[in-house]
Design brief:
The protein is an alpha/beta fold. The chain is built from eight helices and twelve strands. The chain folds into two domains: 119 residues, Response regulator (Rossmann fold), CATH 3.40.50.2300; 95 residues, Winged helix-like DNA-binding domain superfamily/Winged helix DNA-binding domain (Arc Repressor Mutant, subunit A). 41% of the residues lie in helices and 22% in strands. The structure holds calcium ion. Calcium ion (CA) binds next to loops.
Amino acid sequence: MRILVIEDEVKIAQFIKRGLKEEGYAVDVVNDGEEGHFLLSSNEYDAIILDLMLPKVDGLTLCRTLRTEGNQTPIIMLTAKDAVKDKVKGLDSGADDYLPKPFAFEELLARVRVLLRKKDGRVQTQLKVDDLSLDLLTHKVIRADREIDLTVKEYALLEYLMRNAGNIVTRTMISEHVWDINFDTFTNVIDVYINYLRNKIDSGFDNKMIHTVRGKGYLLKK
Ligand code: CA
């Protein structure tokens, strides 16, 4: 899952980025509303963390613009103010949630998870495909009663494949949702990570779940 953080306070932006990356999210950070709008018009994100007070284009204006343009990406709005008026304005402008600063990172994480659940249109804390299960809260991955130890990036890739189980995902889709904007599309990093996952998820099982679709991409299925 890839998240765009639009926040002009560099320390806060880096704090959020580091925390989200540790949880396996791909994170891009920009420091003003204009650059945020530019990235959102050329990339696909799963969620946006948007500061209210921003240089060039402020959070409320950007939020309204995005919704007017038909962009439905879930938005959490951050603000230093805890005034009811600002909260209402934020929600009215099309934000999905609102978090006053200072906040505990755990709370931001929980709210991000809620938004990503909403995006799927159903409440879920676990992804399950056949005998493979992934817990979105604890990050525990189990196949046939065997717990599988994954790195943060392997986990993020598996989560994306499982969310799209039964459908082909292209390398471009994977790079857009699992890696950040600095990802070099001319490397074979994705194939390398798919192989790592295969070794951990499929080896030792007759029933292979991760499939290569020639010329197209990958597919996770029963
Ligand atoms: Ca600010």
